[in-house]
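Narrative of accomplishments. A recurring question from our advisory board has been how the design workflow behaves on a single, concrete structure rather than in aggregate. To address it, we present the structure tokens for one chain from the evaluation set, followed by the sequence designed for it. No filtering or post-editing was applied between the two.
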């Protein structure tokens, strides 16, 4: 006979088990509560601000570039085509409108994979799950992450409508090629807005997010086409489209890089804007804040500038290759820069800082300081006109010999006869004669001397000796003052050699200064941004041109008339091919390391610089600003001004004209050969013949 266990012991066992279960339940509840508390709050979606790209527009409000870490433009559900919404549902989550966020079938499939492969597997995720994962979680393949995903998914479904979830999802996901959200994807792949997509295009985009690199039509057309067609099949099977619509869409070709969005804005311009704005707004706001930056850029001019620079310099490199090979030097790419400014308001219309931004980010239009050579001479003659000289003032183009006096920039003109050194020998020692740094004998580019010439001829023919004689009369300080008034801010040497453009300047400064001539004496600070707004359209800054009258309109007209002669009779002859009134000046340094042309019409001022980044490399003995820089300028201006009215420079009041004898600077007689019609400020016309 078996003994029965005491009921008391059974009861104690029951209590023990119950207590353990209770403790476990409480512990699990607390752990679960704590787990949920530590999850990201879905309330942050109430103020959802996804990373938005900063959009950059040209002067006509056309989108030309973007700054971004995630290239995204957010659009509401009513601007997302129904075909696109259905395409995502068909290929990603056909039961989207039926389930509560979690697909039981999908979970079972994923669980089967776990059992078979013994690791956490992706797949089976609903659109809501994908949204939760994309916005709140990492992409780690762990059980903890999957649990978090499930909880967040249920919370999303509880707090947001299906349309809201779909809107967030389609704006959030990645489409490859740097495109986040469907609006950016539509622009990159099809160069159109999302709301304008057709059925085939909607299916193409819906096919991409599963594997953005693999199903990218630019990278893998075969795979992209197959999955797009699968999307169309699913759409028909689910009743979203008819068989006829499916067949029509199947016949549509995939997008190609040729039909895709073209990045219009030059990289140098983009970097110029970044450098200007990043310190002010910060990296996060500039690249993620969805700013809208409205610029002064004229895309017709910008494209023309880049084309003119590259075509000319690629051809130059080809011809220069033989020189490098002959000297057994490693070939070096010649560089160039161009900037164009509207003289009426200072708006920068085009900028090219170099040939290849990936190879060199140095912006030669803004940052490079180079000697302008003879392109600086208009400032010499402007200062002379301000001091009372006229286009008919007679100068003497004869040799000059200077001796250094040993203090600062003290040079004495000791002879106008290069053939003898007797005068020099009387003033300096034999030791100084041997030291060539003590003697300066400037020459003209062509090594010729013309004798008496008038001021206008001296500028038109770019005669070095006459420029030096002029600066000696008016002093270098007067020239420096005039140049600064025009906008030259780099330090200029208080020396006679300033007449030859020996002090470094930037291309932007030179063009800005010449723009004052075109505007009739009004200096406007160059600017590139007209307005910046935030993602909500609030204006953050608005720029109004800062203008100041720095020259009389009469002096400007005189200088312009003289610079027109550079084009008509001088080294800027190529600019005549523009076919409209223009003025300008070439510039070439002594060793031909720099070649310039700065010119303008009433509507546009532009400058071109060509050279090597290494100052020691010469462009070539016969390569001048007129040969290499001026043709680039002409080609660019043709593109930039195409369709614009042909205008001449307006003549202000108090201007008089007179026929001048170029050999005497006096009024020409009826029988005078080579007389030229010159412009004068009223009261300064010569009175003698």
């Amino acid at each position: 006979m078996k003994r029965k266990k005491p009921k008391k012991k059974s009861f104690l066992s029951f209590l023990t088990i119950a207590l353990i279960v209770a403790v476990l339940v409480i512990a699990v509840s607390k752990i679960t509560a704590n787990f949920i508390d530590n999850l990201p709050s879905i309330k942050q979606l109430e103020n959802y601000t996804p990373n938005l790209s900063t959009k950059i527009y040209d002067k006509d409000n056309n989108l030309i570039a973007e700054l971004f870490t995630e290239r995204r433009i957010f659009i509401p559900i009513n601007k997302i085509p129904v075909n696109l919404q259905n395409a995502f549902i068909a290929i990603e989550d056909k039961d989207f409108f039926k389930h509560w966020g979690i697909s039981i079938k999908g979970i079972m499939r994923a669980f089967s994979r776990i059992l078979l492969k013994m690791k956490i597997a992706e797949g089976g995720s609903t659109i809501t799950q994908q949204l939760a994962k994309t916005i709140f979680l990492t992409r780690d393949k762990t059980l903890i992450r999957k649990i978090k995903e499930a909880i967040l998914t249920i919370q999303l479904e509880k707090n947001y409508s299906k349309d809201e979830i779909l809107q967030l999802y389609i704006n959030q996901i990645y489409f490859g090629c740097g495109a986040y959200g469907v609006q950016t994807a539509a622009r990159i792949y099809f160069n159109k807005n999302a709301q304008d997509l057709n059925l085939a295009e909607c299916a193409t985009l819906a096919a991409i997010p599963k594997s953005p690199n693999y199903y990218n039509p630019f990278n893998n057309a075969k795979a992209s086409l197959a999955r797009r067609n699968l999307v169309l099949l699913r759409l028909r099977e689910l009743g979203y489209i008819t068989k006829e619509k499916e067949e029509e869409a199947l016949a549509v070709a995939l997008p190609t890089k040729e039909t895709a969005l073209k990045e219009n804005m030059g990289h140098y311009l983009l970097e110029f804007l970044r450098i200007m704005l990043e310190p002010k707004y910060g990296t996060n706001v500039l690249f993620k804040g969805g700013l809208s930056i409205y610029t002064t850029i004229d895309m017709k001019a910008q494209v023309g500038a880049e084309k003119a620079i590259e075509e000319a310099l690629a051809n130059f490199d080809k011809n220069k290759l033989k020189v490098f090979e002959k000297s057994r030097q490693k070939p070096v790419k010649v560089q160039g820069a161009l900037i164009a400014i509207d003289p009426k308001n200072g708006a920068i219309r085009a900028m090219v800082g170099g040939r290849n931004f990936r190879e060199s980010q140095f912006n030669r239009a803004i940052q490079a300081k180079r000697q302008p050579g003879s392109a600086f001479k208009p400032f010499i003659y402007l200062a002379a006109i301000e001091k009372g000289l006229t286009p008919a003032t007679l100068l003497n183009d004869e040799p000059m010999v200077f001796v250094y006096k040993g203090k600062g920039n003290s040079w004495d003109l000791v002879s106008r006869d290069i053939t003898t050194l007797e005068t020099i020998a009387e003033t300096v020692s034999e030791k100084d004669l041997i030291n060539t740094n003590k003697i300066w004998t400037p020459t003209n580019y062509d090594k010729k001397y013309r004798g008496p010439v008038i001021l206008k001829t001296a500028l038109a023919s770019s005669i070095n000796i006459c420029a030096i004689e002029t600066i000696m009369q008016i002093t270098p300080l007067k020239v420096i003052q005039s140049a600064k008034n025009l906008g030259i801010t780099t330090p200029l040497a208080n020396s006679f050699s300033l007449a030859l453009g020996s002090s470094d300047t930037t291309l932007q400064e030179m063009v800005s200064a010449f723009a004052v001539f075109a505007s009739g004496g009004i200096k406007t600070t160059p600017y590139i941004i007209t307005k910046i707004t935030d993602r909500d359209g609030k204006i953050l800054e608005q720029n109004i041109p800062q203008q100041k009258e720095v020259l009389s309109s009469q002096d400007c007209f005189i200088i312009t008339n003289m610079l027109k002669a550079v084009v008509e009779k001088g080294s800027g002859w190529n600019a005549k091919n523009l076919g409209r009134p223009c003025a300008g000046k070439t510039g070439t340094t002594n060793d031909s390391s720099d070649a310039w042309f700065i010119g303008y019409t009433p509507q546009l001022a532009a400058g071109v610089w060509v050279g090597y980044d290494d100052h020691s490399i010469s462009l070539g003995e016969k390569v001048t600003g007129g040969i290499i820089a001026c043709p680039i300028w002409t080609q660019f201006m043709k593109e930039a001004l195409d369709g614009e009215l042909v205008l001449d420079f307006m003549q202000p009041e108090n201007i008089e004209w007179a026929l001048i004898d170029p050999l005497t600077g006096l009024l020409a007689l009826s029988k005078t050969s080579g007389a030229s019609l010159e412009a004068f400020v009223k009261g300064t016309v010569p009175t003698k013949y």
